[in-house]
DNA sequence: ACGAATCGTTTAAACGTTTAAATAAAGATG
DNA sequence: CATCTTTATTTAAACGTTTAAACGATTCGT
């Protein structure tokens, strides 16, 4: 890489000190600097195509105008959409973003966070893994500004922006009931993640309030790393038990993808054989023959709010902001028991 | 943010110079340094939880172990998947990645590239926009290592990793013909992007070689910013002309998404009324009632190769590497004229 | 006309590293 | 024992900025 032009280059060319060049280029002390010299400096800067070395500036000012974003997996559409929104919001404020995927792995999350901090990010937006508290304590201790995204720990006080997951579970289940569901099963991850447990609690609570029998008997938990096989197994078990379930509440888009594949393979009819509701969204849902009813997360608001809170935190305001966003129920066809699908066989 | 511990802190604590601490922590001059002092320094470093300030190190060494990645839109699954692969490959080599979305906008691309360079990235992986050549010339001139991703300019010599798009177009078309297609239309972007034009050229070439009539008459071009309406219009025009097309070759996943929506809306039967083949891939395709036949890009290889070439370029090898990857045809149902879809109406 | 205020600019230190060169102390050589 | 090596460590400059403080030269007020 070629040497870039520095303040010094400009200074020697114009015949002034680097300090003066710095002042001019940062529009500081404008009233104190002679118009002619300022103009000359700016001209030479443009001529030599000067661009600030943010590394040097960052070293001096301990500000890099870079934020770190750690998601579970950038290749997942949920993360990718958020990343895009955060990128735009950061950009509006002159920030650039470093990203990383934790793969729901505590060690990796920690490593990524450290790498980013070592690179001088001004703050972090992160979707914490299950056992991230230790890391979060460290961040708090070292006063690194951060905002949790999508998840948080109720017992740990920090800024976060997340969905109201209880409401999401509740809403989905209530809709299932109103659409004629009598036995509503749920498939969720085997996880201690609060946001996932909340979805289950919402489901359970709606069942109870509407006096729907079954309860936890109709809950199935699957492991992230055996998703395909466990989703198949659990769908199967919910459908083939003594009193089969007529509605399936799926706790995430990844679970839904696998369930859908299995349903297609087994030629089950949605919603006649089984109604489906998903918490989460992905492009694929609308192309299924019985377009899926799902709970939409307000991604735009989630990403923007998280970014704003972080930037706010970075620049002054040390307040803790906790934001729970409302889910939106998007009713399509997969949940309507009375809907007869175009699939005939 | 709290002050982090520096070499100086360790040095004063141990009672040695910062130079020595630096040597020890970087495992340099190991044979020249007394075991005891080295051990002491390492102990204190751990105790004070020392972590290198990469900003300072970067300033001194002009190496940040950060690369910049500029895609068209990180929220698009194609970009997101590549980003993930690149992230992993970079991470394996101790690099972190800054990302940005160009939105196919030359100005934005330029701005992003500059921001990244100002932040001292060691190199750039970028999907260039249509008129990126000026920027690329600048990168070449200033000797910033870079690799083009997904696209390149045949008249501009630089490293790149891309699909063999001609072959993709050719392959898709040949398959259409072999599956009984008689009149094969294509919808592509209105763009001067070489990689898109190549897809058209491949299609055209296959038509000619198989003596299929129609040729450019059956080509429709749509604008990115009016995708929905123009895709509808063009699908319609290809199907309602004097001699309607029986197969549609769609040049990208975004075009396909819109076409599919329209097809569903209009209740067209795939593949009976119209067969579909897409160049590009997205999760949604498999859930359409007639799962889509498509051309798969070897994303893994694409991302990994690009990253490796870049890192190679950064560390020594100034050679230009140009890699054209082979597309893979994935045959499902949408292209098979003899296949009778489960959709009955 | 003299000290004070103002003006335009420079000096110099600092941010946290790296690294070539210098140095002091100890050991080997003849 | 004088000299040369080796060993272990330090010195000091540098990377490219920022910024408080200092500076000399004008201009001002009385």
From TrEMBL, chains A, B:
The keyword Protein transport does not apply. CDD domains: HTH_LacI. This is Transcriptional regulator, LacI family. It comes from Chitinophaga ginsengisegetis. Keywords: DNA-binding, Transcription, Transcription regulation. GO terms for molecular function: DNA-binding transcription factor activity; transcription cis-regulatory region binding. Pfam families: LacI, Peripla_BP_3. Residues 5-61 form the HTH lacI-type domain. SUPFAM superfamilies: lambda repressor-like DNA-binding domains (SSF47413), Periplasmic binding protein-like I (SSF53822). Gene3D superfamilies: 3.40.50.2300, lambda repressor-like DNA-binding domains (1.10.260.40). InterPro entries: HTH_LacI, LacI/GalR-like_sensor, Lambda_DNA-bd_dom_sf, Peripla_BP_I. SMART domains: HTH_LACI (SM00354).
């Amino acid at each position: 890489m070629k040497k870039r032009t520095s303040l010094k280059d400009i200074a020697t060319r114009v015949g002034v000190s680097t300090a003066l060049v710095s002042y001019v280029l940062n529009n500081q002390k404008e009233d104190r600097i002679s118009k002619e010299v300022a103009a000359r400096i700016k001209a030479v800067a443009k001529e030599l195509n000067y661009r600030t070395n943010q590394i040097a500036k960052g070293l001096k000012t301990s500000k890099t105008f870079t934020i770190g974003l750690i998601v579970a997996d950038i290749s997942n559409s949920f993360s990718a959409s958020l990343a895009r929104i955060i990128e735009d919001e950061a950009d509006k404020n002159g920030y650039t973003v470093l990203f990383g995927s934790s793969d729901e792995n505590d060690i990796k999350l920690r490593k990524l966070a450290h790498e980013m901090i070592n690179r001088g990010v001004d703050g972090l937006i992160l979707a914490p893994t299950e056992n991230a508290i230790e890391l979060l304590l460290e961040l708090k201790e070292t006063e690194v500004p951060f905002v949790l995204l999508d998840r948080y720990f109720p017992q740990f006080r920090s800024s976060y922006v997340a969905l109201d997951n209880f409401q999401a579970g509740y809403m989905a289940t209530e809709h299932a009931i109103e659409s004629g569901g009598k036995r509503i099963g749920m498939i969720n991850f085997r996880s201690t993640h609060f946001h996932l447990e909340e979805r289950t609690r919402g489901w359970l609570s709606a069942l109870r309030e509407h006096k729907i029998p079954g309860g936890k008997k109709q809950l199935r938990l699957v492991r992230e790393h055996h998703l395909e096989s466990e989703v198949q197994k659990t769908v199967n078990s919910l459908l083939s038990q003594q009193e089969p379930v007529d509605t399936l509440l799926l706790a995430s888009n990844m679970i839904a993808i696998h369930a859908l594949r299995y349903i297609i393979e087994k030629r089950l009819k949605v919603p006649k054989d089984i109604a489906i509701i998903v918490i989460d969204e992905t492009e694929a849902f609308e192309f299924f023959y019985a377009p899926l009813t799902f709970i939409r997360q307000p991604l735009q608001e989630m990403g923007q709010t998280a970014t704003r809170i972080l930037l706010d935190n970075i620049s002054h305001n040390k307040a803790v902001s906790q934001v729970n966003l409302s889910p939106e129920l998007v009713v399509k066809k997969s949940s309507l028991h009375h809907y007869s699908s175009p699939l005939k066989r």
